[in-house]
Each structure stands twice: as structure tokens, then as C-alpha cells.
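Input record (Table S2, row 442):
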Amino acid sequence: MAGTTVPAMDTAALTALDRAHLWHPFTQQKGWAEEPPLFVERAEGCTLYDTDGRAYLDGVSSLWCTVHGHGHPRIDAAVKAQIDRVAHTTMLGLSHPGAAQLAGRLVEIAPEGLERVFYSDNGSTAAEVALKMAFQHWSHRGEPQRTRFVCMRMSYHGDTLGSVSVGAIPLFHSTFAPLLFDPLVAEPGDAEDLRRILAEHGEEIAAVIIEPLVQGAAGMLLHPDGYLRAVRALCDEFGTLLICDEVATGFGRTGTMFACEQEDVTPDLMCLAKGLTGGYMPLAATLATAEVHDAFLGEFHEFKTFFHGHTYTGNPLACAAAIATLDVFEEEATLDRLGPKIRRLAALLEEHVAPLGAVKEIRRRGFMTGIELVEHPVEARTGHQVTLAARRRGVIIRPLGDVVVLMPPLSISDPELEQLVTVTAQSIAEATSASAALALAA
Ligand SMILES: *Cc1c(COP(=O)(O)O)cnc(C)c1O
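Output record (pyridoxal-5'-phosphate complex):
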């Protein structure tokens, strides 16, 4: 089939190509081949359209990325204007206006004290960069024994080997154990556990890495109020760095621009990706304090350079999309308008989802929502069945195992929010009665 071109709308031909040649991420290919794939051909606002012209509500922001909706005129225009100037140039040895302007904007909105912006391309690399910066920083500061990291149980920081090393979701991470470095794992929400680890190993610790307030990939695990502040205080007490991975929580997802703000915390390093470009382009940033950055200053012969950089780092199209995304936050007062929507989401969940017998717990912070279903056999793939039932009703969601995740774009309207929650409730009811029947038959 190599070289074959297919008319954009020919779903059957696309299906054949997909089945013959694609390998999808986080996907059991055998199961994939047994279900008809859905090809998203275009999108507008919170609606995705497939190759057969069917419309679907984007209930998970295209995997937690889309912020102001698809095809936002302001962001579209910024990317189009940039493509007429230059699509790509390098950050190695050169700079470009968008990279500098975006850095200034990010420092302006980030927690006070974060002053430097190092670009990469995705959340995993943003975490890798933070880990390597923390590690090398200590070597320059004359504490080379600080080589270890503390992460949280059920943490997720990406899929490259460094970020997997500080990941603690057994299903995703245990396969690769022989390839990984060995972090100390703290019980999230339990400051005394972290204190015990730091008291025992404080001198060896380069940094504590945490997803602030919400551990997304774990299934929207929520930290108790005050925990992040306690983690910051413990890092200060034991003289180690704090890395906040805001890849999922950043850009309004928890109700404020960054989750750290809610506990008045400035991390030493902060990772951004997913929503950074409004969901338009792969771009990530690792923000650092002057203290961390300045540890790398030196004469050339001292080799204190941070030897790390990705080819497409700080791509100009992506920077243009990110700047426009921040402009839209201001122009549309997105965060001010979010509060009522969050309350609406909470009320809808309470009304339609909470009463369902198949729902064990609803965990939510801002728009980040995890609906944990009561236990079903793995082979029932209940979360997946909910997804398929929702799709038949015109809503796209993607579960984490048997946790149904909702994370709509911040631009979602009230009627769309209502559609999202009611369809989710109907789909849970349908899928769980079907899998209950399956269990009985077995
Ligand atoms: C998604 C995610 C990542 C990984 O980002 P990618 O762009 O998929 O590499 C890292 N950290 C957190 C908290 C995430 O949710």
C-alpha cells in the first residue's frame, strides 16, 4: 500500500490503512483491529467531526490539551501569520521573537520566583529536563551526592525512561523496571511519610517531584488541602528542590491558571505542556528559578552547560499558538468565567452520575473529573464500554481503566456541559448493566 493516497473521506480505505500500518499508543492492537476506528477529520469549538460527517462532543479536550476550543479564530490567525514568516528555526545558537515573548509571558503568569523558561516538545521531556536540571544543579552546587528523587505513589510524569523512573503506576511502569533508576516513593497526601523519607535520605535527594493537587493519570487522585504547601515546606526544611509537574493541571484545568497558586507555592522547577499551546501544537516548557539557573553559570572550561536540547525545541508555530492561547485567556476572561461552569459541572455530576449504583466515587478538582466505577472484571473493559456507549450518543471520552475521565475544554458551553454529563451517566448505566449481565453469564 506504500505511496497510496486515499480520498480524505473514504472511511473504509482509511480503516484498511490504519489496520495495516498504524500502531496506536496505549492501545492493545488486537482489540483495536476488532472495532471500527473513528477518524476525526475536522473540529470546531468543542465538537469533533468524523470522516462520515458525524459530530461528537470533545469530552476530554483531545487528551487534556484543548483549552479554548478547536479552531479558535484568534489562535488560528496567529499560527497562520507565523507560518508566513517562518515555520521552524533553531533555539541552538539562535533565538526568535515568539520564544522570547512567550518566555516573558509565562514568567509573568507563573508563581513568583520562576524566571527562566527552557523549551522542549512534550510533557515527558518537560519532566526529563526538570529531573536532569535538578540533578546537575546539585553537582554544580557542590552536593554531588544528591542523586535520588522522591515521587508519589501512583504518580505519572510521562513515558520516556527518566519520567517513567519517577512514575509509580505499576500497570504502566513495572515492565520497564530493569531499565529505570530507583526513586523513593511517598504516600500522596501524607506529609509525615514524606518527612520520614527526607529525614532518612535527605542528603541524597535531588528533588521531590509531584503533580500538584491532582494526580491525573492515576485516575484523578486528589491531594488533601494543604498537602502541597506541606511538601514545599518539607523540601525547604531538608534543603532539596521541588518539581511541580503541571503538565495536566496547568492552564486553568483545576480552576486557576496553575494548581500551585491554590496553595501559594512556588516550585523550584515547573513543567508545562498539554494546554500550553491551547492544544494546537506539541510544545513544553520547564520553568526554573534564578537559583537553579544560576548554578549552571560558569566559564566554558568548567563545562557547567546544561547539555540537553531537542531539535524542534521552542518551535515558532507552537510559540505563536501558545502566545495566542494566553491572549485568549485575557481577552475572554476565561478564568473568571470558569467558576460558574465548575459549579455547574459539580451540580450536574451530583444530579446525574452520583446516584448510579455502578459509581463508586467521583473525584473532581475544577474541570478535572474522575468517575470511579465499582469493580468489574478486567475482561469486561467497563471503562472502554462506557466510552463506546458515549460515542454512540455523540460524545468522546477516554477512560483510565475503570475510571471514566471528563475534562472538557474550558470554553465548553452550559448546554454542552449538560450533554457531556447526561450522556456519560446514560453510558455508564448502559455499559454497567451490560457488563453485569456478562458477569452473570460467565
Ligand atoms: C500527560 C502527562 C505527562 C506526559 O506528557 P506527554 O506530552 O504525553 O509526554 C507528564 N506529566 C503529567 C502530569 C501528565 O499528565
